[in-house]
Amino acid sequence: MTIRKAQIEDLPELQKLFSETIIKTCQNEYSLNQRKVWSKAVKKTEKWEKSLKEEFFIVAESEKIIVGFSSLKNKNHLNLMYIHKDYTRKGIASLLYEHIKAKSIEYKVEKLNANVSKTAKPFFEKLGFKTVKQHKNIIENEIVINYKMTE
């Protein structure tokens, strides 16, 4: 497993991983319609490009396949954390988190915060994150719940 800085050339693979992860991995916590409207964020290419340029954005690679990615925004916000649907429960999220946390320590940040899905919430709780607030995001008339969490 290799962790490296994400490149603009990774964008199509990142977008595919993002969409497939939401559709397949989050099926126990979100309805199909909720997952479909949420995954449409993949089409906001300009936003993705901005994240790749401005954030500490890393990918986990196994045999030249991107199996996960994460990003740190504004030094203290874990913005993205997605793991390939076929590679969940293999320690990839923990490995990415360790790199994100190390970078935040370089920035002298004491606590990270994140907006996390129902699916990811137990993982973040195991890391010591606490729920600050529940968000009800309305996307195309669907309510998609996530949680603001902090260490």
TrEMBL record:
Annotated ranges, domain N-acetyltransferase: 1-150
Gene3D superfamilies in alphabetical order: 3.40.630.30
A GO molecular-function descriptor: acyltransferase activity, transferring groups other than amino-acyl groups
Entries under InterPro entries matching the protein: Acyl_CoA_acyltransferase (IPR016181), GNAT_dom (IPR000182), N-acetyltrans/Recomb-assoc (IPR052564)
Protein name per the record: N-acetyltransferase domain-containing protein
Organism the protein comes from: Tenacibaculum soleae
